[in-house]
Prior knowledge:
rod-shaped
Amino acid sequence: MFNLFSDTAFAQAAAPAAQPSIWEMMAMPLGLLAIMYFFMIRPNQKRMKEHNNFLTNMKAGDEVVTTGGIIGRVKSVQETFVSIEIASDTVIKVVKSEVSGLSTKGAAVASATAKA
């Protein structure tokens, strides 16, 4: 009696399943990598490139914001440091890479002069 049921079970399991090709197996991981590149890596690289362009084109007189939140006017730009005037007769020296961007007031002035 036991042989009757076991033979039926083996007969159903004996049909070989088709193996997917290497391209079918790699399609999902490659698709996920492409999505991750276009949504995470590429925008970050673009943002870093824009920040580096800002740092190289920074000049005296620009109103900037540091990563610490200090707002001031650039007095001088050296190779790795920037002197920023934060109040009358108060100048601080900041590492150039720590300047995050133009202040909103400075950005509005820069865009107005670019349009003129």
